[in-house]
Amino acid sequence: MCLTRIYCRRKRDGRLFRFNSTASMLAYSRANHENKRTLPVIDRSEFIAYRDRSYDSTTWIRSTQYEGMAMLSDARNSD
Asked: Model confidence at 79, in pLDDT bands (50, 70, 90)?
């Protein structure tokens, strides 16, 4: 079994996303009017660089609306 991880960084606010399939990424993009320019796919090393620069303590927030999607957030602000 091959586990797919697709990392994206939203342009307008810099929020980081992780998708487990292209289907979940497309479902999120269509519902939220995102496109390749506003929600570009980044590679893992670029993702790690953004994460280390932007967040002190990270936590993944899982989406119940879009299966296979998670959003990275600062743990201090996830109350």
From this structure: very low
